[in-house]
Amino acid sequence: MADLDDRRIVLGVTGGVAAYKAAELTRLLVKAGAAVDVVMTEAAGHFVAPTTFQALSGRPVASGLWDSGPRGMAHIDLSRGADAVLVAPATADFIAKLAHGFADDLLSTLCLARDCPLLVAPAMNRQMWENPATRRNAAQLGADGIVILGPASGEQACGEVGEGRMLEAAELCEELVAFLQPRILAGRRVLLTAGPTFEALDPVRGITNSSSGRMGFALARACREAGAVVTLVAGPVALPTPRGVVRKDVVSALDMRREVMAAVDGHDIFIGVAAVADYRPVESRPHKIKKGSGNMTLELAANPDILAEVAARPVRPFCVGFAAESQNLDEYAQGKRQAKRLPLVVGNLVQHGLGGETNQVCLYDDHGVHPVPPGDKLSVARAIVTHIAGMLS
Ligand code: C5P
């Protein structure tokens, strides 16, 4: 199932250069399964033609207050049954209108008449964004329960650099998907580990494993979508940080342990997804090891078990472990749960190594085994989050 299947989104487009990103956003929302009704202001039409949005959404584009819809009441009908109205880009002028309740075109009128959540993605020159009038208006939107997405900081179309850029289409799509998830971890603080660790042998070599970090990153995203405050301690991976997640990068198991122990107080949930190396070289050489003629023996020292250490604290968060096994999954996963005193273990069979796009897991708790439908890692992560929230409630 796609993220926005069965959802209807009204996408408002106002007159800013970033309107070109709204075309890509329309495509991404449609690709995610949403029915998208685009409503443009007259000014937006100076940047992108309605035909573009019509072609991308496959639905008629509305613009004028007087081009009616079937009942002659487009300003009412468009938001009825919609899951959200998202205005992207939202100009300074449009934000001012929303803050004051003006209704002098179709988009502002439907925003006033809506019966669903409203999200806006500001896009404007940095001085306009910093102007006290815009700050007042944006604060008013927040007080009125309107969600403000961004803006981002960076290079602007006018050539200046600063805060006011609209978020990228993919970021807006991710934010909207997150907004529509149930807030089942609202008020919770979650700490996760993800990825492999790298145990250095010398400045260029080390011991690691094939964990991609995708499952841990997907879980961090799913926890944040569910309303949690999330900190992610990540081993060496090349993955983008999920939006709204605080990330701390580490290399070795000892680094990971240090970051986790420094952060764990005050967290309600700890999820150890990382494939932490069980052993590290006793000695990490300061210079590259030179090739010899015969075999070489490496002496390894056991690494601390981070999860077991967190779970053994007198005041401990709700601890979730992962068990990636190549055989006897039920036995090993339940054994690990008992040995580390964990309320929940997520187990999966890894006959073909770690790091794929999809996953198939079973959840092990006091009540037994709960298989999760196989799927992409984000949908599996959401199912795990639902189970955790159920255990905590
Ligand atoms: O005992 P095993 O290594 O199979 O346990 C896996 C679980 O323990 C995972 O949740 C993993 O993140 C965690 N772990 C850890 N520190 C280690 C080894 C494993 O936190 N040194």
Mean pLDDT over all positions: 94
Span from first to last CA? 26 Å
CATH class of the largest domain: Alpha Beta
Tell me the count of domains. 2
SS class: alpha/beta
Residue stretches low in confidence (pLDDT < 50, at least 5 long) are none
In spatial order, strands of the major sheet run 12-11-8-13-16-17-19-20
CATH-defined architecture of the largest domain = 3-Layer(aba) Sandwich
User: By CATH's scheme, which homologous superfamily of the largest domain applies?
Assistant: CoaB-like
* Each distinct ligand: cytidine-5'-monophosphate
Number of helices: 13
Helix percent reads 25-40%
Largest β sheet strand count, sense and barrel closure: 8 strands, mixed
- Total strands: the figure is 21
Mass-distribution shape: elongated
How many whole angstroms does the radius of gyration measure?
25 Å
Measured by DSSP, the beta-strand proportion falls in: 15-25%
- Say what the CATH topology of the largest domain is: Rossmann fold
